Amino acid sequence: AASISAALHPDGKALYYFAAMACGVQNGMTSTYSANLIRTTHLTGTSTDIGLIMGQMIRGNWKNYWKFKVLVGLAASFWLGSLISFYSA
Fold first, then answer.
1. Are the beta carbons of 40 and 75 closer than 8 angstroms?
2. Cα angle vertex 48, ends 45, 49, to 5°?
3. How far apart are CA 78 and CA 71, in angstroms?
4. Which of 26, 46, 51, 66 is the most buried (most CB within 10 A)?
């Protein structure tokens, strides 16, 4: 819907509403699937979680290392997607 809205009305605000709605749906689906362990549409929450888990690992608690790997991959995907979209525009 966001793509169609952007194509038909490039200056309209509907694109932002559809994009926000899509992020909310994605976040709700992944929160339900992962029992609220991973938020996929918030880079700030991801960065905070990476920092917290790094602190735990420095203290010797490697219990959440699996989550650390997932979050680092997610953050790297955000950055890679940002770079690709920046240079393709």
1. no
2. 85
3. 11
4. 46
pLDDT digits (tens, 9 = 90+) for 21-67: 777 777 777 766 766 666 666 677 788 788 889 999 999 999 999 99
Output the CA torsion 16→22→26→27 (10° steps): 40
Q: Encoding tokens for residue 15?
A: 């694109």
Radius of gyration of the chain (CA): 16
| DSSP notation for 38-74 | --SS-HHHHHHHHHHHHHHHHTT--TTHHHHHHHHHH
Q: Residue 62 CA to chain centroid, in angstroms? A: 23
> Could you tell me the two tokens for 49?
């979680």
CA dist list (Å): 63 to 42, 70, 76: 23, 14, 22
Q: Are 71 and 53 in contact (CB under 8 A)?
A: yes
